[in-house]
Design goal:
Elements: H1 15-19, H2 37-65, H3 74-104, H4 146-155, H5 163-167, H6 170-185, E1 218-226, E2 229-236, H7 242-255, E3 260-270, E4 273-275, H8 279-290, H9 295-303, E5 310-319, E6 322-330, H10 337-354, E7 359-362, H11 375-380, E8 383-392, H12 394-399, H13 405-422, E9 428-429, H14 433-444, H15 451-454, E10 457-464, E11 469-479, H16 491-500, H17 512-537, H18 541-548, H19 555-559
Parallel strand pairs: 9-10
Antiparallel strand pairs: 1-2, 3-6, 3-8, 4-6, 4-7, 5-6, 8-11, 10-11
């Protein structure tokens, strides 16, 4: 389990600092010891073992000879002193390291929120990024001057990916890599910012080989009145009208009394594929995995990989002698791909003993199905399966949405249902669910590629209350979100999660924050669908896009 740490932003790197790269490193606690730390640990471990063995022998001899324990000689006093001293050292060294490793672990299991509303700890001093690996892994000495390093990268003598490892300074590494890229391509990329970003926060976690960061505007739609709570929904997008349209939908929902949601299912999936010598042997494993009598055993094996990952079921499919095993499990507040993968690996290792002829081809066999449009996700669900609904009053439809109930119901049938069927859509029975899902995903640090299955949605509109009011609902079976791990730990994305009140893990009820985020996504889609369909019914789409989605500015001049 790798330990991820949030790092403070490194200081700006000036010329003087870069030239001082070869200066002596900062002192560490272990430097106060006369021997290297590993040798010191071995010595104290040996002293502890020897003194303990000696005292145990002496105490046994005293018991046999009926000698009082308080009668001790000088050797026993020294042995006791050595035992206590070495025990204190070992407890201090290994005990504190163990506690820190437990508390700081954020491998998608739990995000420990440290802080108090009453007192705030002073901001930590800027630190350099941690090393991806041992600096000794790369042969040769890194030049001290920036110019020499850039020249080495351009010439191919220094791999670009080792800069963080060798330099220990993420900001400097990104700057040097960027300069090398400029010389290789001849492109200036001046519009891509470099400064103002904490590159240490993405090391070994979010992005490799960074040369800058892309700026995206974040708009707020809301308040979205959902399940009795008011949410201000952050949306990162470059599409004009999207936030404004979603905001109008939120207004219509709020003025009609709000929306309600229900989470039907909460389970991430992973489906390894294995091959057997014959289809009969593959069918034997299928029968074993799907037998309810074996579920408890499989659960014990699977669940040992995580505090929050809990096996819910296994669904198998076969293609010839290949078997695809679709495991589903709860993952707490994490999106959970890493968590479930570790559990699946445990089960595969366990099955290998009873099925030695099983050849595991891949931990993922596309029956999951991750980042691909698939019927299995549309039917069985993946991640959070959510339904969100609202009843929009007739006067709100006319005043806010500028249309009428009958036109909206007719448009939804002809466009979202019949039109999508003509197109052969798979889970695409909606107007633009993907727009809202993508914008919220990017703003809150989700995996944008999982927009593919997370945007599967069917939008239903019906006239209710004798045809006066509008009932609208969205059913989304595969919303894949988390509030810990991955991009959720970056500063901007973490702030957006905090705006929604779902930052980090919910310690009282694990998984609650991620489920709330999924309902907010569905609620945002509900608002977006309502507003866009109204614009289409009223013939306002082209007019609004011409107003909000076109710019008369010459962006080439702005960039220069």
């Amino acid at each position: 389990m790798d330990v991820r740490r949030r790092m403070a932003p490194p200081p700006a790197v000036g010329v003087a600092h870069r030239k001082a790269a070869g200066a002596p490193r900062a002192l560490q606690a272990g430097d106060a010891l006369p021997l290297p730390i590993r040798h010191t640990n071995l010595i104290f471990s040996a002293l502890f073992a020897v003194s303990l063995a000696y005292l145990m022998r002496r105490w046994r001899a005293k018991i046999r000879s009926s000698i009082p324990f308080h009668v001790v000689n000088l050797t026993e006093i020294l042995a006791t002193f050595v035992l206590v001293t070495s025990l204190i050292y070992l407890l201090s060294f290994f005990g504190i390291a163990f506690v820190q490793s437990v508390v700081s672990s954020t491998d998608e299991d739990e995000d420990f929120l440290v802080g108090s509303s009453a007192t705030k700890a002073p901001a930590p001093a800027p630190v350099q990024c941690g090393l991806l690996g041992s600096a000794d892994a790369v042969s040769g000495k890194m030049p001290e001057e920036d110019e020499e390093i850039v020249a080495g990268v351009v010439a191919g003598k220094i791999p670009s990916y080792v800069l963080e490892t060798k330099l220990g300074d993420c900001r400097r590494a990104a700057g040097l890599r960027r300069e090398a890229l400029r010389r290789i391509t001849g492109r200036q990329i001046e519009g891509l910012p470099l400064d103002g970003f904490d590159y240490a926060s993405i090391l070994g976690q979010c992005c490799e080989l960074p040369v800058g960061y892309v700026q995206l505007p974040v708009g707020i739609a809301g308040p979205l009145l959902l399940d009795g709570q008011r949410f201000y929904v952050p949306m990162a997008t470059t599409e004009g009208c999207l936030v404004a349209s979603t905001n109008r939908g939120c207004k219509a929902i709020a003025e009609s009394g709000g929306a309600t949601s229900v989470v039907l299912r909460d389970a991430m999936t992973r489906a390894p594929v294995a091959r057997f010598p014959t289809a009969r042997r593959a069918a034997g494993l299928k029968a074993f995995l799907e037998d309810p009598a074996n579920f408890d055993t499989l659960s014990v094996v699977f669940n040992r990989s995580s505090r929050f990952g809990r096996l819910q079921g296994v669904q198998c499919a076969m293609a010839g002698r290949n078997i695809y095993m679709r495991f589903s499990c709860s993952t707490g507040d994490a999106m959970g791909m890493n968590m479930i993968s570790k559990g699946v690996q445990n089960v595969l290792d366990y099955l290998q003993d009873d099925f030695p002829d099983m050849d595991v081809i891949s931990i993922s066999g596309n029956f999951c199905s991750d980042k691909k449009s698939a019927a299995v996700n549309w039917i069985e669900g993946r991640g959070k399966s959510v339904v969100c609904e609202a009843v929009i009053k007739e006067e709100i439809v006319k005043k806010v949405l500028k249309t009428n109930v009958q036109s909206l119901v007719e448009l939804n049938v002809i466009k979202n249902l019949a039109g999508s069927a003509v197109a052969g859509a798979l889970g695409g029975f909606n107007a633009h669910a993907s727009n809202i899902v993508s914008a919220i995903f990017i703003a809150t640090g989700q995996d944008p590629a999982q927009n593919v299955e997370s945007s599967q949605c069917i939008t239903m509109l019906e006239a209710v209350n004798d045809g006066r009011d509008l009932h609208i609902s969205v059913t989304m079976p595969s919303i894949e979100v988390g509030t810990v791990g991955g991009g959720t730990q970056l500063a901007s994305q973490s702030a957006c999660l905090d705006l929604l009140g779902v930052k980090g893990a919910n310690r009282e009820s694990p998984g609650t924050n991620a489920r709330i985020l999924a309902t907010v996504v569905a609620g945002g889609v509900l608002a977006g669908e309502l507003s866009l369909l109204s614009a289409l019914a009223a013939g306002q789409l082209v007019k609004s896009h011409m107003k909000y989605n076109r710019s008369s500015r010459d962006m080439s001049k702005v960039a220069s």
